[in-house]
């Protein structure tokens, strides 16, 4: 077994503390990655604090992982020792169901196994990227370009693909008017991608202080969502709205932004149900949808697109010693715009 060290939550109220554990020795298809950087996703906080229910402890969070390949199994073809590599939210799927075969692994019919807070099909707990290494099958390990800052690539593995996938699925591009709701880790990647794909893009934010950054990140317009008059002015104007908000909020306000046949896609995952008025749906024949991370091939396509267009996340570096303050700042919406843990401080 591989000896690993990381930071784990022992229960839903405890702060993350040092944790020693073992990972499996690499099988023929596995890649061992020595982790250099891991982003802090709001999903880490939701799960550490058991806001969605069913959390498993001890929990080593982290699914925005970048590092260097330390070992490869005999069947591995994409990687050799020393290569840069990245792991996201998924580490196992059945690979044979219709969704897996269609490259939609997050929707695996047997159930996708998360990088942490999950059990493999063999019943072993999975531990994430707030740690010094990880073992994953090659299928779930991505190549990354050396042209980009590795630390700033890490958030692409969740915040990046979670916004890229729905923007691509719903055909966002030139001639489309797109709204991004919430300027956090997901929202700032959504803005960058919608802008890069050529859409006219507006940010809806509760934080007036983020307006200038939003314009720099790609917003053509910034709307303060607490301003009812400003929201009213945008009623019925949008083809697609991507809701990246982590806390309970009124979805009807965002459905009302849509034009005929417009789509509101929910990617944020507040712990409470979000009530929807039937009138907000029938007006303009609106659709309400959701989307979960993205498939392995589309994740690689997104990473390759980022390398070509020089797109990375805007990050603030932090360390394993500052996880609690990072969580508190994330809860306040006070991150520009993703924390990334330097795991070299764990060595
Ligand atoms: P984050 O960095 O904390 O950003 C969330 C943003 O939501 C905040 O910056 C804030 O933006 C806005 N917000 C927060 N509280 C709000 C409130 N009470 N009312 C209105 N807006 C509020 O979080 P994240 O990492 O981007 O994650 C966002 C959500 O997506 C989380 O729930 C996470 O679990 C989920 N997620 C889903 C998937 C998926 O596959 N679907 C993948 C990853 C994450 P403003 O200051 O601009 O208002
Ligand atoms: Zn995430």
Distance between the termini: 18 Å
Distinct small-molecule ligands in the complex: NADP nicotinamide-adenine-dinucleotide phosphate, zinc ion
Largest sheet entry: 7 strands, mixed
- How many helix segments? 11
| CATH third-tier fold name of the largest domain | Quinone Oxidoreductase, Chain A, domain 1
Shape: globular
Could you state the CATH homologous superfamily of the largest domain?
Answer: Medium-chain alcohol dehydrogenases, catalytic domain
Strand content: 25-35%
Second-tier CATH architecture of the largest domain: Alpha-Beta Complex
Number of strands: 17
Kindly name the structural category: alpha/beta
Average pLDDT score: 98
Weakly predicted, low-confidence segments: none
Helix-strand sequence = EEEHEEEHEEEHHEHEHEHEHEHEHEHE
- Compute the number of structural domains: 2
Q: Report Rg.
A: 20 Å
Helix content: 10-25%
Class of the largest domain, according to the CATH hierarchy? Alpha Beta
Name its key features.
347 residues, Rossmann fold, seven-stranded mixed β-sheet, six-stranded parallel β-sheet, 24% helix, binds zinc ion
Structure in words:
With 347 residues, the chain is of the alpha/beta class. It has two domains: 209 residues, Medium-chain alcohol dehydrogenases, catalytic domain (Quinone Oxidoreductase, Chain A, domain 1); 131 residues, 3-Layer(aba) Sandwich (Rossmann fold). Helix content is 24%, strand content 27%. It has eleven helices and 17 strands. The strands form four sheets. Strands 3, 4, 5, 8, 9, 16 and 17 form a seven-stranded mixed β-sheet that branches. Strands 12-11-10-13-14-15 form a six-stranded parallel β-sheet, covered by helices on one side. Helix 4 crosses helix 5. The longest helix is centred in the C-terminal third of the chain and has 14 residues. The chain binds NADP nicotinamide-adenine-dinucleotide phosphate (NAP) and zinc ion. Zinc ion binds next to loops. The site of zinc ion has 5 residues, from loops.
């Amino acid at each position: 077994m591989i000896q690993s060290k990381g930071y784990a939550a022992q229960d839903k109220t405890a702060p993350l503390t040092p944790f020693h554990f073992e990972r499996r020795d690499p099988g023929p298809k596995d890649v061992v990655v020595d982790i250099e950087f891991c982003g802090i996703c709001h999903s880490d906080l939701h799960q550490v604090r058991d806001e969605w229910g069913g959390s498993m402890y001890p929990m080593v969070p982290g699914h925005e992982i970048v590092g260097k390949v330390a070992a490869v199994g005999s069947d591995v073809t994409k990687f050799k020792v020393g290569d840069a590599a990245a792991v996201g939210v998924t580490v196992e799927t059945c690979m044979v169901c219709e969704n897996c075969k269609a490259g939609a692994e997050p929707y695996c019919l047997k159930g996708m196994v998360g990088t942490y807070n999950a059990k493999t099909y063999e019943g072993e707990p999975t531990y994430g990227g707030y740690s010094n290494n990880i073992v994953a099958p090659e299928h779930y390990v991505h190549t990354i370009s050396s042209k980009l800052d590795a630390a700033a690539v890490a958030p692409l593995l969740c915040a990046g693909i979670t916004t890229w996938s729905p923007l691509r699925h719903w055909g966002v591009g030139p001639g489309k008017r797109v709204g991004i709701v919430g300027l956090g880790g997901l929202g700032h990647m959504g803005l960058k991608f919608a802008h890069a794909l050529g859409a006219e893009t507006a940010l809806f934010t509760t934080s007036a202080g983020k307006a200038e950054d939003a314009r720099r990140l790609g917003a053509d317009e910034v709307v303060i969502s607490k301003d009812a008059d400003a929201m009213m002015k945008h009623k019925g104007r949008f083809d697609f709205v991507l809701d990246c908000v982590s806390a309970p909020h009124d979805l009807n306000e965002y459905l009302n932004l849509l034009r005929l046949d417009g789509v509101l896609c929910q990617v944020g995952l507040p712990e409470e149900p979000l009530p929807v008025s039937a009138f907000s749906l029938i007006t303009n024949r609106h659709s309400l949808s959701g989307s979960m991370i993205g498939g392995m091939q589309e994740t690689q396509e997104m990473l390759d697109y980022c390398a070509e267009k020089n797109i990375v996340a805007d990050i603030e570096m932090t360390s394993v010693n500052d996880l609690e303050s990072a969580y508190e700042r994330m809860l306040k919406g006070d991150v520009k715009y993703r924390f990334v843990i330097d795991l070299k401080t764990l060595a």
